[in-house]
Protein 1
Amino acid sequence: MRSGFAFALCLILSLTACEREKRELSPQPTRSEAGLATDFVAGAGALQPSGNPAELNAPALSEGKTLFATYNCTGCHANGGGGMGPALMDDEWIYGYYPDQIFRTILEGRPNGMPAFRGRIPDYQVWSIAGYVRSMSGLVRKDAAPGRDDHLSGKKPESSTDKMQPSNSAAPTVP
Amino acid sequence: MAAKDYANTRFSGLKEITTDNVASLKPAWTFSTGVLRGHEGAPLVVGATMYVVTPYPNNLYALDLTQPGAPAKWVYKPKPLTASQGVACCDTVNRGAAYADGKIFYNTLDNHTVAVDAQTGTEVWNTKVGDIAVGETLTMAPIVVKGKVILGNSGGEMGIRGRVTALDATTGAVAWRAFHTGPDADVLIGPNFKPFYPSDRGTDLGVSSWPADMWRTGGASAWGWISYDPELDLIFYGTANPGPWNPDLRPGDNKWSCTVFARRPDTGEAVWAYQYNPHDLYDHDSVNEHMVLDLMFKGQMRKLLVHPERNGHMYVFDRQTGEVLSAEPFAFVNSSTGVDLKTGRPVMVTEKKPITGRVVRDICPAAPGAKDWQPTSYSPQTGLLYIPHQDLCQDVEALDVGYIAGTPYVGANVKMYAGPSGQRGQVQAWDIVNGKQVWKIQENFPVWSGTVVTAGDVLFYGTMEGWFKAVNAKTGAPLWQFKTGSGIIGQPITYKGPDGKQYVAVFSGVGGWAGAIVAGNLDSRDPTAALGFVNAMSDLPQHTTKGGTLHVFALP
């Protein structure tokens, strides 16, 4: 009886131990050049930001501006000056100012209160919003940025906004 | 409790510090909270210990007043969810704690009410009463009445469903819960509910006064003050604004937003209610203090309830019935012409009503009202109320908005600016019985701190530049001031130390809605930032910086 119990115990242990000891002999290489939250990269060489085609496209940026209100982004970030959430029209970027970083911020959220929108907004709209966010501090081409505001007279339109060179970042100059 | 007594008077009987000697008041000791956001709290002194709750992350410090410099005996860290910071509408503030039966009770930003052993700092119970995923937070100071910890939620800008919860002080179990929208059964309205005015009577008004189902996301939180009358056995508190702000989207009275409730503390049963702002147009929450005062009023000794309302009127009720005896404006108001005492309803000015897609200008008072949360004090010696408040007007553009859980549900572009006085802040002494101002002090910025008044006839308050001031409670004459490290938006208190001396304590640490431009590094090129408050505060960063410190003063 006692040996039977010991046998069963061994069997259970060996079965569970299999899972515990399982190793990938050749792990899949991971590759992620998008969405780093910092410009401080180990090893030599600067990070190359990836582009956002929506930034060159006036209708897409204009759409981004509309969506920024539709998805209640304005509730926290106002029209760029911030409120419950940080200002987006200034030169400080907590989680990075590259297009793909902003894309990831919207998609995945950030721990201090930015909600994740993954699965709630189609990707092309996220790119439009990300482009619009950069236009708020003059980081996109002026001939593509929204040129007028139909609302209560507030800040200058994005196309007339002076470029705010991101300040708290060692990254290469924004093109 | 944060408000000193059940009546919410913030009057201290201490009189070592007087109008004659306050000029020699000196710093006794200070304590850094390690937090940079807005400090709206009140320190709490129990015996020889001072308890201090910080803004998020809501650490509770016990400071030993018997030792020089009041070193910390222990600290309790509740570790609230970091994401809760993102759903707090108006900075990550905490307004204080309450004490009863050897325990300290307070709320954390991520919707926990905790009971902590006052001697040891160990957690006795911890009850989750809300959810940040739907935009709820907790910022208010609870009160303890007859063995129950009573608290209300925050999140009127997030489409939450407002409510007050009572927890058993011994176990933390939910004793009752009263919602502020929805069917009578949820609101705890039953056969004993007898509102004074006909427009507050009817069945399930919390459903029928809203477009279909909008009561489910209708706001009406309760993030302000709760007072208690032991004799009538009633608690009194106000509910906040309805959501969204854009009134076009919610035709109807939107009950029970912007309402004062009188309830039984044992069961939560509503005894009477009165809606200050039916179909609120301007984010005029009615969460300001309701002071329980017995006074000679118009030749008769009356049981009064006194409430300086965000809409700019000083309401005086018979607290037994809910009848409004008087409602005089205590600040400049152009959005209404007064309160009709027959119907109980304010008479609104049509031209000042927000309209979707149009900008309506020069609305006074602005969204934070003539007075926001910052608590008034009352001195039975002078018979005066001491109201800290602001003078702001605004332009509003109402906008369409859809509800997305966990995001703001506002629907308005707002731009605030200084009101007709040109000065943004005021402290005024108000004569309740005669319904008029006795004196006033103008301040450059909104007076976002509370006031405390003493038997020495000294009134204390702070400014957003960081000055802590003492004035003569009878005349308003300045007597003393001290410049702290950051703007003051906290609630000053005064207490007798274990050494028998009188001390005065206040948090310095700018923030809150008014100070969001500094606490949140907001950009004033966008006048609509912080729901429009930034436009009125664009010069604040030139006058103060962030930093949370408790300052304690005494005579040499």
Protein 2
Amino acid sequence: MSSLDEKIDEAKKLSMQIVKESDEDKLMTLSVGPQHPGTGHFRFIIKLDGDYIVYVNIDPGYVHRGEEKMCEYRNYFTNIPHLERPVIHDSANITYSYSLAVEDLIGITVPRRGQFLRAITSELDRINYTLYWLAIYGIFLGHSTMFMWPAADRELVLDLLERLTGHRITHAFNIPGGVRNDMPNNFKEKCLSQINYLEKRLKEYEHIFYNNPLFRQRTEGVGILSKEDAIKLGVTGSVLRASGVPYDIRKVEPYDIYNEIDFNVQYMKTCDSFARAYIPFLDVRESCHIIRELLDKMPESGDVREKLLSNIKGPPGESFKRVESGRGALSYHIVSDGTSRPYRVKISTGSFRNILALPFLLVGSMLGDMPPIYWSLNYWPIEADR
Amino acid sequence: MIDNKSEIELKKKSILLSKDILNSVVEKFGDRIKVIYDKRNRSKIMVDPEIIVETAIFLRDNHGFDHVESASGTDYPKEDQIEINYHLGSYVNPDLFPYVLVLSTKTNRDDPKTNSLINILPSVEYFERETYEMLGVYFIGHPRNERFLLPEDWADIPPLRKDFRLKGR
């Protein structure tokens, strides 16, 4: 036999092996991300049986920057600018809980006017983040108007933040001891007029997005996360509240000025993707209400920060503080050994906790339901990777 | 202005609550549990590595601590130990909503091993995986002690150990 025939025989044998079917071969493996435009810098591997998802393995870490290690090399103030990088649209909240934890460690309280300014920045950033998230949610459901409108209206909030802090995003406004500077003179009037406009727009949003048959059909009854499962998986923020647990850190453990503010915790009992998409929108509406109340109750004058030494030393000990961010509870665990640098900083973010529900929700659902489920989890890959 | 009376009552309530929890735990496990601190809405207990699973079951079934807010480790090279902290919270018991209990244990630094809480509190899954790769602590009973956030070709010591130094620092 010639060598060519041998080779052909070998190839036939090989191809027979490949064609031989097993249960495993029926499945198709699909890698979603990290270059896929639908996920952000995040990958998950799914196996499909026909149109149904049977296996999910998540693979984060593409934007891991070692924020926790970096904290150990910088003092309590120089940590602020790099800590807000994981979530630049919501940078007020991620530095808020850090500042609270450092203040708890050192044992100081923030002046009253500073507390109000912090809360205003925090609420504006919540609106800013949620509009951005809503825009991306829309484009991945094929609703391009839903991308254009929030992306345009977000500019109004960014203008307000620029006026207040000096930057559109990554403000470095919250620092241990208070906020960096006082608000400008005409800020109150400007803010009220923008908020009034935004509230009008929110009514239109509800009409065109949330009452839209296309949007409702793709999200209602899809990705059910029951109350028991939500509690078991320890999810947080809008995902938890969409499953019928009225748990909002601003209400259950009020920080700074929030115990004087009258607002409602938004929650729903339908447990589906629609509820998870609707809760952040209701939060934006509530935030508009909170900002108006804050501007109304704010003292006319006063200090905005407690002056601290630039290389302040915390006493040995530890503190754990959390705030309600746009994606749920955001907490810092800081351990101090008495030097001017933190000994250990652990950041626990809402995204990192919510993504545990993704394999749970995707297994058993259809591939077409993947985008509405994934985006309803309010996941921000960079924040989860830190 | 802040309603001082309600503020004081809340404070009293939280002190009673944490006393109640800590007393019951100490009563059950005796001197194998040490109370490290008891501040407002935050308490920390240090338990022996052998009884961490039983303590977690006791806290879940008797007090309603049903999820973790965070779980992490801290390296102490001088004491040759790694401390593992679970920040437990509750979604079912409204009295415990503002309260966070730190359940912590220590393990040897050369061969760090501890029992995983994944069967009691499923929310620890990714936190324990992260602690495994960042500090090298092996969680007995965890199905996936493997790479999570670091690059696939990472070939150095776990980066959150104190002897791992950042370049140029």
